[in-house]
Structure formats: structure tokens, C-alpha cells
Amino acid sequence: MASRYDLRSAQDLDTSYASLPGTSGTSVIENSTPLKARILNQNLGGCHPSRWIYELLHNNFTVCDVFGRLRKTELNTPYPWEHPHRLMINGNQSYSTNSTRVLSSVCVDCHFHFVFKMSWDERHSQESCNPQQEQWPPSDARFPWHHLVWVGQESQSSPLVKIDDRQRNKYYPLVAREPFACSAGPCTFSVTLEISEPRMTREWIDLLLDHDTIRKNVRRAKEQDPDRYAAATDDWALQAPLNLNTYLKNLLEATSQENARSISKRNKRFFVLFGTRCFEMFRQLEFEETVDVAEDGVDGGTFTPPIPPRSDNPSGATDLGTYRAYIEDVRSEVQCIIHRGGQPAELCTPGLHADLGCAEVPNVDSVLVNITRYEIMGVLPNQPKEVVVNAYKIQWEMIPDKRKALIDALMSIGNDLNDEQLNEYAVTQSSIFESQVQSQTNGDDGGLTNQALLFFELQPLNDYKAQSIVQAFRRKVAQDPSCANTARNMLMLISQASTDDNYTAELVMEYGEGFSLPTAKEILGLSDASGFGPDTLDDVKEKIRNAKDKDAKTTYLEAMEKIAEHTNSTGLKSTVSELREMHGIAVPDGSSATGASAQAANFDLPVGLENIGNTCYLNSLLQYLFTVKPVRDVVINYDKFKLELTDEKIKERLLGGNKMQLDRGEAVVAQAFVQELSDLFNNLEQSDKVATRPSQRLANAVLLSTGTLLKETKSSAEATTESQPPPLPTRPPPGPPAKENNDVEMITVTANDSRDPVDTASTVSSQTLVEEDSDRSYDKVETSPTTTEDQVIDTVMEVGQDEDVVKISRTSDRPMEISEAVEKPKNGTSQDIESTDVNMLDAEEPETVDQKVLTALEHQKRSSGTDQQDVEEVMGSIINRLQAAIRPSSVDESTGIQFEEIMKTFFVTTINYTKKFDDKTYQKEISFDRSITAFPAPKGSCSLYEALGRNFDQEIIEEDKLSRYTAIKTLPPVLHVLIQRSQSMGSKNGNPVLIPEILYLDRYMDAPHESLTFRKRVESWATASRISDIKASKAAVGSTIPTGPILESIGQEEDAKGSIAAVTEDSEMTDGVKIVEEDWSFDGTVDDDYLLVGRPSVNSVTSAGLPSRPKDIKDTETAIREKMDSELRDKEEALENYYSKLKSNPYRLHAVICHRGQLMSGHYWVWIYDFEQDVWRKYNDSNVEVRRSTDEVLNTLSTSGEPYFLCYVRDEDKETYVDVPRRRRPAPPSDTSFENLDADGDITVTNSEPLKTSESPQELPPAYSEQNSD
């Protein structure tokens, strides 16, 4: 019998009454957020916001254990904190935006700080909970109030709050951070509560409230200097908090350090209220102290406050954790002391209720609040029935194992409220629930289903959503990995009992083919983690070692396999295989643990490249270069371009625009690289596997400099020869001496050893991301310090006045390979060493440079295969190797620069122009570069044209009084654009750059300075600069609300108050009870007395002496805003019109190399466009995917900070310079079953000579068939 039923009653009742929550058939929108997603990983209930606020103020959350943890923590606080908190607004730290709200508060009584950080998805703000959705009878699809669920429980073994030490500093002594999310389906609201300790110590407060000491100081001062202290009274003893409050107020209001108001230590009030006993307090407040001891022994120095910079927050609010926020916090605590002395405080609790979309419940009985029925329902006593039922419906899904208790609580609360409608609703819910339990229990298979539910710790009556069952399954397997097979069987029982196909499908996905990714993550403790790094791997290995049986070990290994499959991590797959072998656990049938190179290929897709140790950046470049015809031609037909390895030819070869001298070691490595690249390109065309594996020799040739290779060979040899005979000349690698006579034959081994050592990726030293939104790439976090050893910047500078060019060389960024890097053989004979194993006669022969570098290429390690380099650096290394391997095809007679196919294909010529303000002509500097650079916007997105403009457009440098710009002199057929995402302090600029399919470069091309083209370009620079200024002004204006209406309303209020001020002034000043904040003026360093300025009279200044108040402020502001908008539209239209005519140099996008991660770590992949088949392919190490839609790909690339290296090709030459080679299909097997039979079936004997075939070349295999987009 099925376990899911149509619960709608046949009676004429509203479906809301006659159906249990979630079964009315009403569809509900589900909007997810990262915090909200964590609700599914726990079986915790939530509560109505009114109860949430009540529990917070009374230090007793039903679910969140933050106050329990605080009770176990030794806190150095001035007052006890276990009392009902009275919160008031703290400083200038609260603000609102379209998607956030921050409310900063402090408790009047204990000085603890409570910050409420609220956020929601602006796109779904209309779907947030809203009291206007309240209705009766209730509906499953309406959510009038938030239902807040604590989502801070990450795992049972880890602490909830992990607070950085920097967050526990003096400025922000944070003790707890607790996130809560609204569990209503459509709502994206969340609130994070941050609790921090008081800023003032008990000692400070005692000093301010030490009335007896202050009175003694006053009396002593009056006795010593009666004239100066004639106005002093004992009332001064109560004014220390008021004075300190004013000091801090003036500090916060000061606009610059020059306006800072110093406090003289001899000041009358400061001397008696604070004096030397309080000096340390002002030092802790970071006031700058000066000491000036007079003859009378009294310090006449000063305390000067530092003036903190104002926040650059668009809202103007103070940033938490700053010095300004700290001073605001201290001032708020001082005000709390004043309020406790009798001044009434305005509490912010009503505002907090409004922010959370609820109403405060008056006269709450604290005894009833903690009764079980209100705790489990998450409401307060006396809340209306609509609130109760709303909470009941949500709790039904949050805590499915307590549904019977929820119905009992619903009935009890109905009795408490004595509400007829609520009682009727509760009785109906109870009746339906009991009847369904009974019917399921009596069914043929109901008993098995109930047993399965109980196995997952769920109460019978299978009205659970599929996701709730799945979550229970995950919890069970994570808690007890040895029961995984039993849990799968139980899940199968529940799925088979359902008649809902979608419901069944969701459950089958969990037990059908291994674990799902979320289940695997929960088993391994990665539910809330972002990576599978070294620490995680160690933890999992420890779990496997400690597992109580083989079934538990198998569960962990299957979960690891799922992670490896999802991330396509060959390193992790290898680790799983090793662990299986170590623990004697066989690979299950259907496992995907085999590598990509062993899998049969889809011949419609290109061949992927396996990652051999954090070489995703190299794989991306190799895949791209395979599609560049000149590169492929050089590599495949290398003999046509090969540089002869004679000393004369090597000496003559000069590389790049700076004509860099080539040495022999560099030439040898370059030729080895091209040979390895040729083998790889052949494999990419002929392989019948999903992916092929680049050789470690190829990777070493690119990623290690020749100097490094020679240095390593030298150091290895030295280490060996210290105590052992020297190695044979070509033995790879140098090692201990041989033990047998046969080893003497090793002298014949040459450096052309074809072995391809496998350098498996080290999972321990890399980190594989396992986020849900992974694109199944090998998402490694590969960290290593950036090295510039191989970086080559091919440039030559020509400096002169316009056409009068004087050539000078620019220093190369690449270190020259010098002969000293090779160890010279020592003269003399070697010592006679007794040995029966080795004939040492040949050891005297020195190892050549060729042998040394080739040997090092075979055996050099790259830090266990996990170094990662910048893709632009690696591209430079590849281009340099290719150039060093081939001879020049032509030489520029005027400059001596040698050109070959690589330089002709990729190198762009640019001119850097510089001119001082007083000069009439530009100086220029000509450069040959392998790419041009684009700079993303500091904030927000920008177009590629804008990013390139930051490199090419005019820049005014005021301090040096000069202007400069860059222009392109000549363009190559294949143009590389580097999006420079490196920023200062080692951070990455992840702002999106809008990438066009066609890039027009006319606006950057060089033009004579007297030409009309250049004059128009100068005008465009001015227009673009003005547009930038207007946008900056609009952003500044948009971040503040219009002040006109406010100023005008204030002016009207002041006019009204002025008419009654004279009447009320005297009465207020004589009221002895009312405390008025005084306007204190401060002494500077002069000896003037501290002056108490009384409350000014409104008649002290005549209105005739004041300027007239400005009028029509609102209209003026509106007009200015409209003018800015109008000018911006006009300027943008003019600039766009100018650019629209510049389309003579179109380049079409061919490839995009992307990077995800941090600046020094992450993962690379490449998108390559196939012009012939009109498809995009994503090459992600071994994995190759296809996308048909260019718009879809460009939208993906233009909305993230992942694109890093763009490859464009001149539109008219794209067929000449780029294509995607076709994979060669194997010849189909011939059908020979009947080829030798005649018509009667007899065997026919034929001549064995092969038939003559056409002399025309064999037709190439067909092109890739078009792919269905996925």
C-alpha cells in the first residue's frame, strides 16, 4: 500500500483545515541562499521573530546554545549580564540598503553590544514574508511572518563560532556570531547576531563614579586656589560621565587633526574630575599625551585625541571594528551610565521588531513562555491564531520527527487562547493525522514502511517530503557509516511504497548508483566546507583507520570516489585506489575510479589532457596552441624550421625585440620541448582515449628555466661526489655508485631516453574544491610563490623626438643563461678507487651541456608536481622555447631584429608616448610584446574597451607634470589580451569584463599627431574623462538621500520653535531635576581657565546679523541631478557615435583562458571556438564539453571574474591562422567472412598480391560531428 495519500477531505471543509501542512497541492516558490541551504542539514526547529527577540533579551534561546557557551566562558565584564537586556541604539553604526540592514545596539545595564546584520536577496524582496499575507483560514502558500532557524550548527565535532583573533581585539571584542535564516520557502531573509564585550573596564567606571574622591578634590582645590574654584560645587562630583561624554562627542565631530581640541591637564574641571588617577584611561583611549611639569610640580601637559577618518561607506555609517566605532562604543557606554543615573533612555526594541516584521507582545508571562508547547511551536503566549498556525506549518517541515508533539501543542495553545476557530482547526489536524497513521499501520506494506521511517528516526505517517527523507538518510549514514547498505534498503522500501513518480525518483537518486554528491560530502564532514584539501584528506584517512568494520571503511571510500568523480581529480582517484588496496577493499562494479586515459573516447570530441600535477594552466595553453596553425606547422614539420645546434648558429640567433643572446643550454632545451610537443600534438590527433597525458619532460621544459635545470644537475652531482665516485656521464639521475660489473654498460645510455616518468598530482599539497556548483573540473587550489625566472618580456625601446628615433635596449626581465651555470671539469686525474664492480676509466670524460640539461629534463621534479605558475608567464616561456628552437626567416636591416613564424604570428608593436606639460612634441618608446594588457574596473564591471582604455588612453600625471598614452603601431594576425587581475597586496581583481565577440582596435592604432584622426582621439579622451567624472558624482549623490526636503523641514521647525523659546528658556534653566547636556569648551595648551559656557540665550544674537536661510533647496537639488543625467546621456551618445565609425580592424574571439581561485592559486580551463563547426568547446583538463550558443558562452564569460587571457584572430585571416584539428577515427574493420567464397560457397584461391590502389592520398577522416548542446 502506498505511503502517500491525497489528504483532501470529501467533506465541505476548507482544504486548509482538512489537509496536513504541505499536502494541499499548492505550489510554493523555493528561493535558496547559502545560509538557508544549511537548514536542510539539521533537524532543528525555528521560531516567530517576536519569540526570537524575547529569547535573546532574556538570554535563553530554545535551540541556539550561545548563552550556554557564554556561561562557560570567563568574561571580564563590569556588570552581570544575566538579566533582561534593555537595548538602545549605538553610535552611528546602523544603516540600511536595498538588500541589507544593520542595527547596532548596546545594553543599558550590562554594556554588552548586540549587532543585528540583516540581509535578503534584492531580486526576491517582493517574495519575502510580509504581514499583509495574513489570512484565515491559513494557506500553505502564504507567509506573513519570518520563521527564524539557527543555521550555525556546522558539525558535531567542530565549534560553532570560529572567531579570528583580529575580531577579538580592543576595538571589537567579539564573543559570538550566530546566523539565523528564515525557513519560509520564498523568503531569503537572514539575520546574523554578533555579541561583543563591553569596551569600558570596571576600573574606568569606578573612576567616573568615585563621587567621594571627586568631592575631596573639589574641596582641596577650593582651599588651595579659592578664586579660581569659586564656582565649583559638590555637584561637580556627579559630572565626570557628562564631561567624558562631551570629550568623546567633540572627538567624533572634529573634521581634521588640526581641529582636534586638546584637553589641558591643568584645566579646572579636568583637574578635579579626572586628574592623574585617570591618565591611564585617556592613554587607553589613544589620546596623545604631552608632559610639561611646572615649578610647582603640577603637570601642565595636554591630552589630544586622534581624529579617526570618516567611513567611506556609501551610507555614511561607521564601519564596525574601527577606531571611530570603538570611540562611539565607549561613548555609548558612558551614556548608559548617565541613563542609569536617572536620564531616560530610548530603547530600540520597537525598531528591532519592525525590522523583523513582527509586533511586540505585551505583558508576556515568563512562566508560560518556557512551557513545552510554546517552545516546540516557536511562539509566545497570547499571540493570535494566525501566528500560531503559521509557525505550526513551518515547524511541521523543520522537525518532522516531532509532528505528533506539534499537533498536541496546537490543541493545547488553542485551549489557552480559548479561540473557537483555532480549536476547530487543531481538532481537524489531529483527526486527519491519527486516521492516516492507523491506515498506514493496517496496510499490507505499511508495517515495513513504518519500520523504515523508524530506522531513520522519523515517526510513522509518511507525509514527509522526499527531501526530508533524504536528509534523514544522510544523517543516518554520516552517524553510522557501517549501516550504509541497510540505509539504502530502507530508502528503497519507502520509495517503492509511493505512487508519486517524482517522489520516488528523488529517493532512487540517493540509492540507485552510489552516493549523491551532497551525501558524500556529509559522510566526509564537508557539508559546510568549500574544499577537499590536505587537512580534509588526513581527516578522512584517520576516519578510515578508526572505522570499526570493513563496511564503514567502504562507505568512506565510496564517498571519496564520488568527490573524485565530481572534481575529475586524478590525484584523488589515485589516492582512493591506494587506500582500497591498503585495506583490501575491492572496487565495486560500475565504479568510475579509472583514469580518463583508460576510457574509450567519443571521436566527436577532441582529446583532453590529463593533469600531471597542477598543470591545468599548461594544459589550457597547449590545447589552445594546438589550434594555431603556424605553431602546429612549426611543431609537426620541425625539420623545416629547426635551428642547427652549432656554436656559430646559436651565437647568431637573437631572440625577440630586445635581441637576446641565445646560449647552448637554452637551445638544447628548446629543441627537446618542440620534440615533446610534436609527440603530444600527434597524440591529440590520433588517440582513441578520452584524454592523453603530457610527458613530464614537456612540462619541465616549459616550467623550469635552463638555469634551474643546470643548477640542479650540478648540485646533485656535487652531493654525490663528496663521498662517492663520480656518476657515469649520461646516467640519469646521479645516484649511488653501481654495484655490479654489468652496470658499466650504462655508459652507452644517451640523453634521448624515451621513458616518460609519471608525476602523479599530490592531493596532499593541493586542494580540490567540491562546491555544489562545480563544473566537474579539477578545481585545485594550487599554491606556490610566483617566480619570474622564466619571464621574458620581448621589447626594444626607441626614444626620440617623433620621427628622430634613437635606439636603446631595455633590460630584459629574464636572466641571461651564463656559462658559469655549467660546472667546468677539473683538470687532473681521478684518484684510484678500488672496486670490483665498476670500471672508472670513463669517469674522467666531462658531461656536456647537452647531456646535463637533457638528463635534468628527464628527472627534475617540480616540488612534487604541485607548483602553479601564472598562465601569462607560461605562455611567455612557451613562446620563448619555440623561438629558441627555430631559425629566423628574416632580419630587419634597420634594427637587427630577427623574425620567424612565432614572432610574426603573435607579437604586437606598441609605442608609448610621453610629453611634459611645457613640451610641444612627444617622446616615444617602441616595444615588441607578446600581448596587450587590459585592466578591469576597480569596482563593478566594465567593457573590454574600457579595460584596454586604462592601458592605451591618455593619462595625466599631475605630480610629474606630464601626459602619456600608448598606441598600437602594428598588429599580429593572432592577438593576445591579458586581463591584468593582479592587484597590490597580492589580491585578485575579480570584477567582470564584458568580452565582445568582435574587437575593433581602430581607437588604439597609432596616428600622426597633426592628423585629424589624432585630434578626434584627443576629444574622445576628454569626453571619456568627463563621463567618468559624472558617473563618480552620480555615485556619490546616489549614496545619500536628497537633503533639500530635510533642510527645508528643519528650517520650518526652527522657525516654529523660535517663537516659544524665550518663554521656556528660564523655566528649563531653573529646573533643578532636569540635566541638560552642557556645551564644554576646551583649553588648548594655553593657561587660560577652563570655561563653562552656559546655555546660550536665543536673544543673544539678533536675526539681523545672520545670513538669510537659502530657499528652494529641494528644487535646486532636483535640477542639478537632472542636469547630470542629461549631460551623461549626451556625452555617452557622442562617444558611442565616434566609436561606431572605427571598425577597420576587426578581430574575432577564438579562445578564452579562465581562472577560478585566488591570485596565487586556483584552477585554469580554456574555451575554444571552432569556426568551421560553429561551436564552443570547454577544455577542462581531461574533460571536454560543447556549447552551441555563442551568446550563452559570452554571457557566462562576461558576468564573472574568471576570464584571464583572451585570444583574438584577425577576422579576415581566421581560416589561415586557426582551426580545430580533427581527431582521426580508426579504420573500420573489414568484413572478411565471405570475401573468399564464390557463388557456390567454394573457397576461391586468389593471388596474394595486394590490389593496386589509387595513387591519390588517402582521404582524411571526417570532421567532428556536431554535438548536441548540453
Topology:
Elements: H1 34-37, H2 49-57, H3 66-71, E1 87-89, E2 95-96, E3 100-107, E4 113-119, E5 148-150, E6 174-182, E7 190-196, H4 202-208, H5 211-224, H6 240-253, E8 263-264, H7 268-273, H8 279-284, E9 288-289, E10 302-304, H9 323-340, H10 349-355, H11 366-369, H12 372-377, H13 385-398, H14 403-417, H15 420-442, H16 446-455, H17 466-479, H18 484-496, H19 501-511, H20 517-523, E11 531-532, H21 534-546, H22 550-567, H23 570-583, E12 608-609, H24 616-625, H25 629-636, H26 647-652, E13 654-655, E14 660-661, H27 664-686, E15 691-692, H28 696-703, H29 706-721, E16 767-769, E17 780-781, E18 797-801, E19 804-808, H30 849-859, H31 871-885, E20 890-891, E21 898-899, H32 901-906, E22 908-916, E23 923-929, E24 932-934, E25 942-943, H33 944-952, E26 955-957, E27 962-970, E28 974-979, E29 993-994, E30 998-1000, H34 1012-1038, H35 1044-1069, E31 1079-1080, E32 1092-1093, H36 1113-1139, E33 1146-1156, E34 1163-1170, E35 1175-1180, E36 1183-1187, H37 1190-1198, E37 1203-1210, H38 1214-1217
